């Protein structure tokens, strides 16, 4: 009887979560119902499953709308009916046109028109929907004569009065208006609620033909979906046999290239994996991935294969990954095994600049009708909720900002704010808008519109209307095509090295960048600024604590820093055992056998599975649930709860002491959703080493590449500083030397025009293009004649000293520029056959402070280039101790003068604290800890230089200063302004700092987790 039900996937319209919609229907005795969300099929697969559990017949379809106007409801007779509607919606989405007022001529879809949009003639599959409120209209002969084509149309959109109000709020958000501006046409009817089935039937008791028509439609709608068969493109070649033959050939060729002839261990592993891949019919997936990678290699692109796919030697032999699973004892079953219920996927990274080229290849090669990104439903989040709901209630921007920035307990207590809070909290976790999954692509055997309508986001690649979890459930193995800045660092550095030094670095040869002596020294000292994944203060501190000087320890470090390991206390315990391998016992023999390499500490996801299987005796199926939970694919801790009872029952049966089992399960639980598999850590470690190799041996080119790719842990200023510390001479942008991006010539780095905040990108591009075409600029006049630029752009370039080749002072250049541009006509901007001689202006020589340039640089770049921040201080004091000496001052109080780089907020049970990262006057990095009591009296006051007083604590080779007092040190007055001008101290306020916030529960202290270091009773 319910042929038009909306869930909250009717974005900014429906208010009922999908599962709760089905549960309400079951409570009201409903035996069949239709999910017809507005212009989407997002929820039909979860809906189908939920209905089957509760013995309800699921009907699926679409409620077609143009904005707030309902046109008609489509119900699929079968699977082809959904495909028909998907094709119509896809065309509507791609062409951005209104849907037709009358439904297309569907063959496998029933159409139900609402009373206010009934065409004069109805096709055989078309009906008129009538609500109980509209039955009185049947006394009109016009409608009475059409009763034989009518069905019950009791729409469902909300459940309660509060949800009706919430519905109206959603409509106002969607229309971007305040609530009082809504009209009745903008929101649903008050009657759009679900009633007990007998109540609804009673309303139509006098019209049995309408009830009969409704039942007939229900009876003829039979959407059945096979959730168990793969929907991906089945074969790379013509069939399964040719696929496995090609994969076998490629695997053996790659094995010989990777391992040489006669490596029996590699041969046995290849043969074993081929058998499993063939049995699971996964050859096509491997070959499509291989094809994508081969195209990338042919284009000269660098890629990184990571994730659990690196457990496969076949992936290694096919160049999908660069991780040798034999070297790291990675077992294939973590990626693919006969017990695994869900298929895996490869995660492959490209440079952010090259990813779109790879995507274009995939869409072209495998067909636009068969390729799409997974969608994702962006939920209403805390800050956006209060901003959006507050706008509906008419709050001004200032109040919206306060609501968004502050926790609820700090909000005002007036009536309107309470309403915003009440309805805002109802909206939490509701889907707000559809977006594109960051990397997941599906390639289907049949047209992808068989399964979903497609949408076209601004990125230009189509997306399906369901997310990656649904994609997996309905039979799609996605391909994760990712991008990251770290690969851009490596790729660009290699190109710069070739250009600047004529040296070809084969960075794909991981043997040159793994366990290299000088790299290991840098690694152990934490000298890794700019290097992917190992440059953050926390990671550099960890490397120093571990004295990490080899590849395998780096692999472990990449995983133990993850929240799951750190939260459980296992990171601290690993550090202790690594530094004191003779001061602990394995507290059970299984831990020595299975986790000897990591001192009995569970570091990787595989370790958790090993312990669950070998200590707990859990079956392989429970191991797979653990894997999914740790990968964030199995509802995280909720999924772990499913195996908890089995674990303790099995442990008791095996005779393990309860205290030991409880401690082990505490560690297992902490891994939920926050840990790496070993292959993933290894992939990160390889890329980190590649970055480090380039930084160690080609630091100037490498740091230039880091500057150009942005997106590192730190701001550009830090990487410029690191380049200078590596021996580079840093130059401000110059119209004759600089490009849009930063470039390098010998040991000279010329900052790119892109770093000038007030210079338009088009102007920067024109400067370079004109110079490359017609030669260097001869003078300021020549530049103005050749480049279309206004006085603001000219001033920016003058202030950054981009015309220093002229030998003229900035003030002189400014006067010349203004004199030229007063009467300058753009139409005269063209190459002259005989260039007129440059007019010489006699101007007075003005005295300039040597620090004026530094303040210009801060204003235009956010940081000084010509001097360091320390040169701008009023004080000449530079501290009693330098960073390089800190390890000699353990437990001593020290005074240091330092420049703030970054600070990280960390919650503790005693209150909020921060970790600070600084550089001293010699340019060396060091770290500080600021606890709540210190911060109360001595808080951070934005970027700049501080005088620090604190006690040095050396923790396993890594010194940190626990700050007791600090004070921000004043800069000199800006010499560009007069002694009475208030702006003298304005520019220095632009000095930046990097602040990162942490929103998690405090990590336990060592005495709280109390991880045993002795053998426990067996």
Automatic annotation (TrEMBL):
A GO term for molecular function: 3'-5' exonuclease activity
Pfam families: DNA_pol3_alpha, DNA_pol3_finger, HHH_6, PHP
Polymerase/histidinol phosphatase N-terminal domain location: 1-68
Region annotation (Disordered) ranges: 988-1018
Reaction catalysed by this enzyme: DNA(n) + a 2'-deoxyribonucleoside 5'-triphosphate = DNA(n+1) + diphosphate
Keyword Transferase: yes
One GO biological process term: DNA replication
Protein EC: 2.7.7.7
UniProt keyword Nucleotidyltransferase present: yes
Residue stretches of biased makeup (Basic and acidic residues): 988-1011
Keywords carried by this UniProt record: DNA replication, DNA-directed DNA polymerase, Nucleotidyltransferase, Transferase
Enzyme class: transferase
NCBIfam families: polc
Protein name (database record): DNA-directed DNA polymerase
Source organism per UniProt: Flavobacterium humi
Lineage start: Bacteria, Pseudomonadati, Bacteroidota, Flavobacteriia, Flavobacteriales
Gene that encodes the chain: dnaE
